[in-house]
């Protein structure tokens, strides 16, 4: 072999690349161009530990503890006032949150803020808002002495068991003739009625006098009510005798007498203890033959009391009257009220009998 052949053989020889180890877990390789830094060698040879081809890395396992969170619950009314102490629930994150749906007397659940169905990752708060349960209304009736409505009925509303107070019309307190006993009270589950009866003439009413029969000494005008503006076309003759059921006195001192179907304010008359034209027992209020028409009907189911000790009942308005002596303040139930075309107002009782509305006081 000459020199040229020896050089060619040296140039062709290259060291073989080492084969990669099987099942190797080396994640990062070193670039061939990057210089390899060798650690300083010890004078003593280190033993070589053979690498097993079946070796696998050991995975570290950590035990995790379940996490918990708390939920704070507030039960508030519509003014944000607590209805009970705050409630706190604790549970594992992600588990079902069973919210206590509490009930409070007189309230209903109206709104919920931040509602959760599971325990959340972080502690949280839930607000439950309750509103008062509305009660049945209180109807306030403002009526004249005949029971006619002066204005439309007023309605008071409020929460169950809440206090209420009904008031007379503005500027009408001095003209109130009668007020029902339940002017103040509490709302309940049943509708309540409050009655204010007004006397625009500011009359002072009283029962019939001790001498309840009046003999007219001159022809006398009649009125639908104790007011000069309520004059009717009927005129009572001289020496007619009538039974008085109640009286009214105006601030001027003028005296009015209620004859059951009309009012009179005579200037010349004479009172009698008994009927001068017959016995008291057989006395009947004069029978009317008036043919009337009903222009208004109001169904009712209200309790009332009779104002006088003597009351005339009718089989129908102006038909077949009968007079009775009764116990003062006798209670009756009014079934309906009708208004006739002569503007007279009649009440039918539950018994079927009729009488003039002015003889009753509604409670």
From TrEMBL:
Record's keyword annotation contains Chloroplast: no
Record keyword Repressor present: no
Domain of life: Bacteria
Domain annotation MucBP: ranges: 70-131, 137-198
InterPro entries linked: MucBP_dom (IPR009459)
Taxonomic lineage of the native organism: Bacteria, Bacillati, Bacillota, Bacilli, Lactobacillales
The protein's name in its UniProt record: MucBP domain-containing protein
Region named Disordered: 21-50
């Amino acid at each position: 072999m000459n020199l040229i052949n020896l050089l060619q053989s040296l140039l062709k020889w290259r060291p073989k690349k080492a084969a990669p180890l099987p099942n190797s877990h080396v994640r990062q390789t070193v670039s061939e161009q990057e210089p390899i830094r060798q650690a300083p060698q010890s004078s003593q040879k280190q033993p070589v530990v053979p690498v097993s081809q079946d070796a696998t890395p050991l995975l570290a396992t950590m035990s995790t503890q379940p996490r918990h969170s708390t939920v704070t619950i507030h039960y508030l009314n519509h003014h944000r006032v607590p209805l009970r102490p705050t409630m706190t629930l604790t549970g594992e994150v992600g588990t079902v949150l069973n919210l206590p749906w509490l009930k409070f007397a007189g309230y209903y659940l109206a709104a919920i803020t931040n509602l959760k169905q599971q325990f959340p990752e972080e502690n949280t708060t839930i607000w439950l808002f309750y509103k008062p349960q509305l009660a049945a209304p209180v109807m306030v009736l403002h009526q004249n002495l005949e029971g006619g409505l002066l204005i439309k009925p007023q309605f008071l509303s409020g929460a169950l068991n809440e206090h209420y107070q009904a008031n007379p019309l503005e500027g009408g307190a001095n003209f109130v003739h009668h007020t029902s006993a339940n002017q103040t009270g509490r709302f309940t589950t049943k509708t309540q009625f409050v009655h204010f009866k007004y006397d625009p003439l500011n009359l002072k009413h009283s029962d019939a006098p001790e001498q309840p029969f009046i003999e007219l000494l001159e022809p006398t005008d009649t009125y639908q009510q104790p007011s000069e503006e309520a004059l009717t076309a009927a005129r009572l003759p001289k020496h007619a005798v009538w039974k008085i059921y109640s009286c009214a006195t105006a601030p001027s001192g003028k005296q009015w007498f209620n004859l059951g179907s009309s009012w009179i304010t005579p200037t010349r008359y004479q009172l009698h203890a008994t009927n001068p034209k017959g016995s008291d027992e057989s006395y009947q209020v004069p029978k009317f033959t008036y043919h009337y028409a009903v222009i208004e009907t109001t169904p009712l189911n209200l309790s009332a009391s009779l104002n006088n000790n003597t009351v005339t009942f009718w089989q129908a308005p102006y038909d077949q009257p009968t007079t009775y002596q009764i116990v003062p303040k006798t209670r009756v139930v009014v079934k309906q009220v009708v208004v006739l075309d002569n503007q007279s107002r009649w009440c039918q009782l539950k018994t079927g009998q009729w009488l003039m509305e002015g003889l009753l006081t509604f409670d």
